[in-house]
Amino acid sequence: MTGRHGTVGVMIEVENLTRRYGAYAAVDDVSFSVRPGTVTGFLGPNGAGKSTCMRMICGLTPPTSGVATVLGKPYAALGNPGRQVGVLLDASAQHNGRTGREILTLGAIMMGLDRRRVDEMLELVGLTRTESRRRLRNYSLGMRQRLGIAHALLGDPRVLILDEPANGLDPAGIRWMRSLLRGFADEGGTVLLSSHLLHEIEVVADDLVVIGRGKIVASGSKAELMSAAGTTVRSDDDARLATALEVGGFQATPVNGGGIHTDAAPRAVGQLALQQQVVLTELREAGSAGLEEMFLQLTASDAREGVAA
Amino acid sequence: MSTAAPTKEKDIPMPSRLTDAGAGIPVSRLVSLELRKLTDTRAGRVLVLVVAALVIAIGLIGVFSGKPSEDKDLTDFLSLASLPLQMVLPLLGVLAVTSEWSQRTGLVTFTLEPRRSRVAYAKWSAALVLGIAGVALALISSVAFTALAGALRGGEQSWSLGWQVLLGVVVGQLLYMSIGVAFGMLIQNTPGAIVAFLILPTLWSILGSFSWSESVAKWADTNRTLSPLYDGSMQGDDWPKLFVSLLIWLALPMSVGIWRMTHSEVKSA
Predict the structure, then answer these.
(1) Does A155 touch chain B (CB under 8 A)?
(2) Which A residues 91-120 touch B at CB under 8 Å?
(3) HEC profile for B54-115?
(4) How confident is the model at residue B21, as a pLDDT?
(5) Which residues from B are below 8 Å from A90, CB to CB?
């Protein structure tokens, strides 16, 4: 894939990354890579190891074993990383007593940028002049996220690494961020974006990496994962169709409110229905609903709700 | 994804979007940035103002207390002004380091400059620059107060200032600043490092007043070992004593502290 920078290959590469805290493995043998010009959603429940993994990619947490590279180099070997990789790991991790403008100014000085860049970025993320002169302690979480995104974009980077940037944004803010990231990727930029909510990133992500309990449980393009998410079918006689599916070697689970979810492809379901002479009233790929279901199943062992139940 | 991506091509060099994007951040830039960070927060500004206010207050006390011709020389006012500089100014050196952890700004600082030892040396250098500025302030104010004492109280003033004293004040201040930075790096926590910096040497001085620990204090109490430096009266075994005390209070915490800073995990919570 060729982006606006005429680059080819992998922008972020994670190989067998592991981080242990005593006996507990926060990240356990994780490998994935992020292609240029794409938005990759890094998905997992709270405490699955997303943030630890991202801190290792950025050189803040030393890995127990394994390697992570950004733009083909270990993060620490990037000369002036802010000009190549924009990072937002925690929007609240800023000095409470500094104004938003001062925080961006410090970043601009460090990266060796023109100060005008500060005003441009403030405008881009929709922070007004007055807001930019308030101290961070008076910022809402949503404003902190906007400031954090402004900080990440300050150095005009080719790669963005964002940990839960949609946290605290209102629906309009989430939509704004999606279109910002989509535009960034369409121009050849690369985004790694974490979230614990599938619906927050499935619209914007091209690829998905799903992590649960420190391990990768699924990864691939969104289209692949969607088609692997199975089929939803409704018919006049769901029970009969379900039996036929199971006899045919497929899984069939009843869906709340009627219908069946199955891992058979729509065509196979249609053929079975024809044989069984069951009238279909609805037949479609489960798509995002199926992906949601799969996400919940894949990560169920790690989900706190699952433990409580 | 991982299977589809052509990993073998990752070595192809990528053109930089901005001309110097690949070049490292010059240390001079890091130092001036750290100086700005020292004074762009309320805590930093308050500390600077407190130092200035104390220098002035203590100078005024010097002018109006005692007999007109007693302790009114330039060197007397200089050593008075040095007291708040020794006590309070190094706290800015402490804050320069600890705020990266207490305020969690390290998450940003160390992603923008992953070579953390450069950040450590930049903070140290910034603290030294501030120390020099402090000595300059002390010099100006002590000249002013000597003149004031002469005008208001009369008496005979000595304007002589030996190079040993001046050098001692400068070197001593740089050492105090360094000790502050070292404590910050070692402890990484603002209240902890400040308390340690202010209390430990005092505790040591109190211990040293007992006869059984007197000989230890001669070698390990920086308040004692630095005082001949400030007087410009360093001689004989003053030097090894100063050296040993600095080994304990500066070299040791600084090396362990820099190791901690470069090796510890930077987390947000």
Answers:
(1) yes
(2) 92-98, 102, 106-107, 109-112
(3) HHHHHHHHHHHCCCCCCCCCHHHHHHHHHHHHHHCHHHHHHHHHHHHHHCCCHHHHHHHCCC
(4) 52
(5) 104, 107, 268-269
Question: Is A164 in the B-facing interface, judged by CB distances under 8 Å?
Answer: no
> Which residue type sits at A142?
G
Q: Which of B111, B115, B117 should we substitute to test contact with A (largest number of A Cβ atoms within 10 Å)?
A: B111
Answer yes or no: do B10 and A55 touch at CB < 8 A: no
Q: Are strands A260-262 and A231-235 parallel, antiparallel or unpaired?
A: antiparallel
A249 dihedral zone (left: phi>0; alpha: psi -120 to 50; beta): left
- Is A37 a domain residue? yes
Decide the pairing of beta strands A24-34 and A12-21. antiparallel
Number of other CB atoms surrounding residue B91 within 10 Å: 23
- Cα of A1 to nearest chain B Cα, Å: 9
Q: Say whether both A81 and A211 belong to one domain.
A: yes
Host domain of residue A202: 12-219
Indicate which CATH number applies to the domain containing A105: 3.40.50.300
Q: Is a pLDDT exceeding 50 seen at residue A5? A: no
In order along chain B (269 residues), what is the average pLDDT of each group of 10 residues?
37 43 84 95 92 95 86 91 94 95 94 96 97 96 93 85 92 96 95 92 79 78 87 89 92 96 84
Enumerate the β-bridge partners of residue A20: A25
Question: Are A41 and A94 within one domain?
Answer: yes
What the block records as the tokens of B109 is 């600082």
Residue A145 within a domain:
yes
Closest approach of chain B CAs to the CA of A6, in angstroms?
7
**Residue in A with minimal Cα distance to B22:** A79
B14 or A231: which carries more pLDDT confidence? A231
Residues in a beta bridge with A33: A13
Query: ipTM of the assembly?
Result: 0.86
What is the CATH number for A275? 3.30.56
> So what's the pLDDT on residue B67?
82
Q: Is the pLDDT of residue A289 over 80?
A: no
Evaluate whether residue A308 is within a structural domain: no
Using CB atoms, which residue from A9, A155, A219 is nearest to B12?
A9
pLDDT tens readout for residues B224-262 = 888 899 988 888 889 999 999 999 999 999 999 999 999
At A213-227, the pLDDT tens digits run 899 988 999 888 877
